[in-house]
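User: I'm writing a tutorial on reading structure tokens. Could you give me a worked example: one chain, its sequence, then its tokens, then a sentence or two explaining what the tokens reveal?
Assistant: Sure. Here is the example chain.
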Amino acid sequence: MNTANKQASIQGYPILAKGKPVRSRKSADATDQHGSKLNALLAVREIGKRPMMFIAAAHDKRMPSDIAQRLYEASIGETRDLLIIDGPGSDIHGHAYQTDPKTYISRVAQFLEIALRE
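And here are its predicted structure tokens:
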């Protein structure tokens, strides 16, 4: 991502709601590479009723699975899913897929089938 682009992102992917970066000055769950505060709950609310899937590794210390649970609970769409992967490797940030690729692929594919029908 170009450093001149001040767009909010997590892991290089933009966090957008209504085409604009989601930022909050009051309470933040994360900070982007430019130091801007991000509020994930605000992002989920602004995304609205669009399909959303939340995926977390059960024992990730950097992004605990209870955060994914809270975001899932805050989402208001009918098409939503929460996948928390447990097993060896679930303590490594971003390793939900590596921990259980079969479950990961199956659940994401199932979610996409439903979400893309809408």
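What the tokens reveal: The longest helix spans residues 101-117. The mean pLDDT is 78.
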